[in-house]
Fold:
Amino acid sequence: MLTIIERYTKNNPAYLNNLNKADSRYVEFQCIGPKGAVLHSIGTPQPLARVIAEYFDSPEAARAQASVHGVLQADGTYYKLAPDNFRMWHAGGTANNTHMGIEMTEPDCIWYDASKGYKLHIRNTSKALDHVVKTYGCAVELFADLCIQHNWDPLEDGVILSHKECYERGIGSNHGDPEHLWDALNTGYTMDTFRAAVAKRVKELEAETLDKKIEVIVKQILNDNRKSQEKTELRYKTLADLKAAPNSQHYLPTVEKLIAKGYLNGKGGSGDDLILDFSEDSIRILVTLDRAGVYGE
Structure:
């Protein structure tokens, strides 16, 4: 389950460039929208998306020329930092011109050694694994929603990429995320498993949506049928109406028996003006019961 919190990074220069339509790249991205999304992992031991969202709205992020569309944490909380059709600075290459950028938070029980090329160290493997597994699942849910919203095929080449894959394709800067963390924890996750999981979830969501649409249609048909019946159903307001009906010879003996026995008092009036307000179907049921001997002789 995703919880989406809109917290646009209005102080970030990338966001401002979109507002000001700084050049054709921003204009085109806003007109066409994203062709896919890049999955990132933040590369710092911070599990809270709120903290990362605050960073992307800070002078430090402005100096680093970094910005993303959103940040996702392990419990499904997603901070949306920009509209989907804003061109943000997340991949460090031409992928910025075509793709959204989504960051995943990382567990606080890891650390990176800058003196050794940011080598990853893990203090608590089970805690780190729990965070990564949950964040991966939430990312599947988020990307499935995005695929449905933007009509993306998650299995089409180049639609869903990691930052590492962007680098390998020459459309992003030299990063290894998020695979670096998945591999370090021996999760078995790859971008192929991620794309497959997203595709499966898209089918599930589309089936759920179809089921709901069918349910609504069926309810509407039944409701329309009921209203139609209410409008066209033959009703007898008074006893006189029933006596004047073409089928009175079939119905009248039963109705008069019920009146005589005191079973049928109507809704007011007396004699031929006795108010019955019965549908023909209701009278047919009374006649059937009468012929079955329910009311006696």
Observations:
- The first strand starts at residue 3 and ends at 6.
- Strands lie at 3-6, 36-41, 70-72, 77-80, 99-104, 110-113, 119-122, 160-162, 235-238, 275-279.
- The mean pLDDT is 90.
- The radius of gyration is 34 Å.
